Amino acid sequence: MKAHLDSFVLAVRYLARWSLISLLVAILAGTASALFLFSLDAATAYREQHPWIIWLLPLAGFAVGWIYLRWGSSVEAGNNLLIDEIHDPKNVVPLRMAPLVLGGTVISHLFGASVGREGTAVQMGGTLADQLTKVAKLAPGERRILLMAGISAGFASVFGTPLAGAIFGLEVLVIGRMRYEAIFPCIAAAILADQVGLAWGVHHAHYAVAAVPPLTAWTIAAILAAGVAFGLAGMLFARATHALSAFMKRRVAYAPLRPLIGGTVVACAVWALGTQRYVGLGIPVIVEAFTQPLPVWDALGKLAFTVASLGTGFKGGEVTPLFYIGATLGNALAPLLDLPFPLLAGVGFVAVFAGAANTPLASTVMALELFGPAIGPYAALACVVAYLCSGHAGIYRAQRGSKLPFNARRDEYPKVDQSVGQDVNQRVDR
């Protein structure tokens, strides 16, 4: 009885302590995401009202590149820096990462780069959370948990998907594994951060999947085939972005010139095509993918514009462009697979992200939160197949790898890293 009572007391102390810390993380991350989303809406509205501003994109890219070269070299790794700090805690993430990535991303959207928003929210959430390390006197293992909670809070508050945000923070670190020692802080921070954003007046886009057909042998086979296509699309996106980034770094030594070149290419492409359909977030096109048939070149166009933007150094995230690519690709594949295009748009929305980020569980839960439970079996199948078919290619270079199921021997089981849990237990014991 004494042992059970001691264990219960420790659990209550743990819950009370991490509830308070998670609340602070949620307030910081949710508020930062709200400011970011409001700024993004204003920048997007201005660009749409003044389309000529796209010609200033090269100068905007040069300015952001110069600022990062002058003051942001230590935080330029972005999401990868946060993941590295979780794996191998060294120094508190510099606070300047938050305003730099916020300003850099808003400028990118204002002038017409094709970038997302997840990276910015995650970096702000992780950076602001990490500032609590010294205040709360956290041990290295606890700091890992704090950073994971910050990542979850940032993701949840920018997309309005608290459960997916929590799982994303647990799943994104190591391919094929989840770190359950941080499950309560991540869930608490994600749910609370989403509520903080809503309290500030944030409104998230809604997508409707009107009718979901019953599961049959054909619909399952069609979803599996679509999952392969989504996985290949995610792999192509990740590899092309990394390849272009590496090429630009080899060929262009002065960093600010890279986004200047990329901005020139994007601006000329917009002029040549006569449309800004493939720049910015592209939310209106994503909505179209759920309401009307679209051509496959919408997915190809967004992929090309986003690779050109991110690969040359513009700041922002990858996830919303992946949503765009997945939704439009699913829409285009629907007639070939004899499935409703809203269903395949919703499935592609999450499955390309699952393949590119190696996060099939977070992507599946996101589908449930965005589109309802009826889409769950289809989304789960497609996300897992996309994850398997994308291999180890991923948008986050700092992700640690593990063997995929078809590469592992039958008698081979992954060793679980217990260091974080041991650190926490030692801290509690002290």
From TrEMBL:
InterPro entries: Cl-channel_core, ClC, ClC-type_chloride_channel
Organism: Pseudoduganella lutea
Segments crossing the lipid bilayer: 20-40, 52-69, 145-170, 182-203, 215-238, 259-279, 299-324, 336-357, 377-396
Mode of membrane association: Multi-pass membrane protein
Domain of life: Bacteria
Pfam families, sorted: Voltage_CLC (PF00654)
Identification of the protein by name: Voltage-gated chloride channel protein
Key words, A-Z: Membrane, Transmembrane, Transmembrane helix
Gene Ontology molecular function: chloride transmembrane transporter activity
